[in-house]
Automatic annotation (TrEMBL):
Signal peptide: 1-15
SUPFAM superfamilies listed in its UniProt record: Serpins (SSF56574)
Gene Ontology MF terms: serine-type endopeptidase inhibitor activity
Family as reported in the entry's similarity comment: Belongs to the serpin family.
PROSITE patterns per UniProt: SERPIN
Alphabetized UniProt keyword annotations: Protease inhibitor, Serine protease inhibitor, Signal
InterPro entries: Serpin_CS, Serpin_dom, Serpin_fam, Serpin_sf, Serpin_sf_1, Serpin_sf_2
Protein's name according to its UniProt entry: Serpin domain-containing protein
Superkingdom field: Eukaryota
GO cellular component labels: extracellular space
Residue stretches making up the Serpin domain: 29-385
A Pfam family per the record: Serpin
Keyword Signal: yes
Amino acid sequence: MKLQILLLGITSVYCLDSSFRDANRQFTTKLYKELVEQKQEKLLVSPMAIQIIFSLLRAGSGGLTSEELSDALSLPRDDKAQDDMVKGVLEAYKTVQGDHYQLTLANKIYVQEDVELKASYKSKAVDVFGADVENVDFKKKENAMAVINKWVDCKTKHTIPEIVTKDDLNDALRLILLNTVYFQAPWRQRFHEPSQKPFFVDSSNTVNVDMMSDRDLYEYHESDELKAKFLKIPYRVNGMSMVMALPNEKDGLGELEKRLGDILALPKFSYNVVIVSFPKFQFDATIKLKPILNAMGIKDAFTSSANFSGISESASLSVSDAIQKNHIEVNEKGTIASSATAVLLFEYSGLVEVEPPKEFKADHPFIFFIESEAGILFIGKFTGH
């Protein structure tokens, strides 16, 4: 009989190594494509969190299981190369904070009381991934659920109060791998107080939203090929910004989404005076990762033939489910974003205007992503729904 592993994650963003950044953008492109194809209703996901938590899982895998995980994550198959890439990012982002901003990343492994982790896996989990390891009795569902959700709630500053329910906990569950990222930061330049404006949910229908506005110097790009405008809004944290991709046509989001790889590979933006307006928004999204990752090539890990022999000798493990919960708030002051991912293993300056200002009026559906020097922490879309 296979024992279960549950993977959970909560995320937010910061920066580092170019090799990981390239891998992160490749993975983000594949992930977003699958989310669109599977018609994810509310789309907000943390690609970086998924890469980190599944890299922690891969560290205890072998054979086909390991190869599929590495390939789908766009990370090298070589153990040391992958560990070094991930460790560099984790060390940079474990805790970044100042008077006005905070970025924290944490990994946690909950282990069934009678399961013993291999010393080599536990050592790597602690030394490379900075994970805390704690024993818990999953058979005592109420207590286990309270312990796990309390940790997630604390790490996400109460933005994600629950990641597991009693239905997720059963007698076959042996491990839960958790990853949390929390990001809160103000804009470098605060926006004006929002006012109600119409937002086109399609080419002819509108809803009223709180629209923020500003006129300032921003990094801006226009693409005739992609038929879209792009705006980079910096946070008061070095190397971090939100990028918005706005199709020229009000119903052009679907076509723009097909070119996400080109969007993420855009050349450097140029500074322009820009008249900006875009909605204030807040929403939550729960992503069932199993069908998404399965379509991306992670198949063996979810079957009885999964090879997680590097994690424990006392249990034959496979992944039963993987869930990510995300939360984002964007307003005139800045952004709060958090994400939780779970993987379950079961048995079985002054302005100088040199040209007319550009206009970036996001009054119809658009893509947004929060990026750092290390890669993309969050990506999503706002459709007005």
